[in-house]
Amino acid sequence: MSEHSTVFQSRWLHYGQWLLIPLLVFMAAELGARQLAGLRTRRSYPELLAAPPTVQLDAVFVGSSRVAAAVASDAFDAQMADVRGAPFHSLNQGQGHTNLHQHVLGLRQLFAQHPERFAGCTLFLEAPGGLVGPVGWQGQWFNAARPELLVELLQAGDLPAFLASEGALEPRLEILAIWALSASRLAVWRRGLREAFVRRVGSLAERTGAQLGLLESHADSSDLSSGGGIRTDAAGIALARKLAEESAARAGAPQPGAYPDSVLQSLWELARENGGELVLFRMPVSSLFDVDPDPELSKRFEEWRQQHAVQLLEPEFSSDDGDFPDLWHLARSRSSVFSRALARAWAD
């Protein structure tokens, strides 16, 4: 090898590493960002709009992360197929940090754009304690912890009502700003990426510490589903239990509002317009949340339910506090049992 070639190779190695290393770091960061973006929600409405299910759906479950944890679609579908003697297909849209407003907005678009997949489907909505409150459209449309989840569900026609709704001014302005920049994927995903990154790094640190003997390992010991934004790491479970205790202290308080003007009424109307029906089901909860609702609210709810002929399913399912690792969500090992019981309650 000539002296000139040796010098050239040495220079290439010297300068090339300063190009190669940043490039590798950038590629790793980009791949990580794409993976973390998928952690924002397992089943987002925008994703379904872009890539709808490949089969005709018979049912869609909507609600909070409790629905994501408690309803195992495969078990529910299998039970319904046994009863009906034909295949049954359902979709679990339970998602943490969402309000019912967001589900109505998302379903409205799905039904309009993909009637071949959603026409006539039954909507199942959770009713913890056997009741759904009369939250209206004048109430807050988003969960304060994740306001950006509302962004991709808003349409121009929704803006006047959204601006007139309740809620802190700053997150509403942030939502409007991101909505206006909705063509920018970075703007839409910024907050979700950041929170997913924090969760992933925290989980990685915990696993590394456990492997080094610095921390007790909690990997896969929570018996919780990770769908719907549920945290399954030890720190997340501890935080969830703390928040559960704080939330339970506020449970049972009177809720103002009229059912005819509620988001629940809008969901019922949406189901009927789509050729289906709305079905409510009692969601199993830990003893912390198993409290008697306000009697006046219960009376108003029952009047609305009877007037609109809405079923309230009471599955034959027993549970105790040991079935709720974080006090909020039903254990993964119990979800199939509950889902089959729910299907039987509906079939009967």
Textual characterization of the structure:
The protein is built from 13 helices and five strands. It is of the alpha/beta class and 348 residues long. It has one domain (45-182, 224-347): Rossmann fold, CATH 3.40.50. A five-stranded parallel beta sheet has the order 2-1-3-4-5. The N and C termini lie far apart (85 Å).
Q: Describe the main β-sheet briefly.
A: 5 strands, parallel
Biggest sheet, strands in spatial order? 2-1-3-4-5
Residue share in β-strands: 5-15%
The CATH topology: Rossmann fold
CATH class: Alpha Beta
Query: What gross morphology would you assign?
Result: globular
Question: Which stretches are low in confidence, meaning pLDDT under 50 for 5 or more residues running?
Answer: 30-41, 187-220
How would you sum up this structure in a few lines?
The protein has 348 residues and is of the alpha/beta class. It has 13 helices and five strands.
Question: How is this fold's topology laid out?
Answer:
Blueprint lengths: L2 H35 L7 H6 L8 E4 L2 H6 L2 H12 L5 E3 L7 H14 L1 H4 L3 E7 L30 H6 L4 H12 L4 H27 L22 H15 L14 H11 L4 E6 L11 H13 L3 E3 L18 H16 L1
Parallel strand pairs: 1-2, 1-3, 3-4, 4-5
Helix pairs in contact: 4-13, 5-11
Structural key phrases:
single chain; 348 residues; alpha/beta; Rossmann fold; five-stranded parallel beta sheet; 51% helix; 7% strand; globular
